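This part of the workshop introduces the protein records we will be handling. A record pairs a protein's sequence with a compact description of its fold. Backbone structure tokens are a discrete shorthand for how the chain folds in space. The question running through the whole workshop is how a given chain folds. The record below serves as our worked example for the rest of this section.
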Amino acid sequence: MSRRCDLTGKAVQTGNLVSHSNHKTRTRFLPNLCNVTLISDVLQRKVRFRVAVAALRSVEHRGGLDAFLAKADDAELSLGARAIKREILKKQAAAS
């Protein structure tokens, strides 16, 4: 399982830990990922994702999973999130 957010694409970054004596040690900065179950209002079901906490806050800010996925760029979404986005858009198009 990759250390990548399903919704925003946030992934592991690398860099240096720099001491007071300017000694550099390579390190990995991991995203704060958590497994969450989000509810889609359009699909009327629960969807499980592995997302960064910052992405979870963004989902709430935009008004829920459906609004977040509608506005999100496909390039940064995981394959599962893209499939859910297509389902949501298809169901919204059929409803209108």
User: Anything to note?
Assistant: Residues 13-95 form a domain with the Ribosomal Protein L24e; Chain: T; fold (CATH 2.30.170.40).
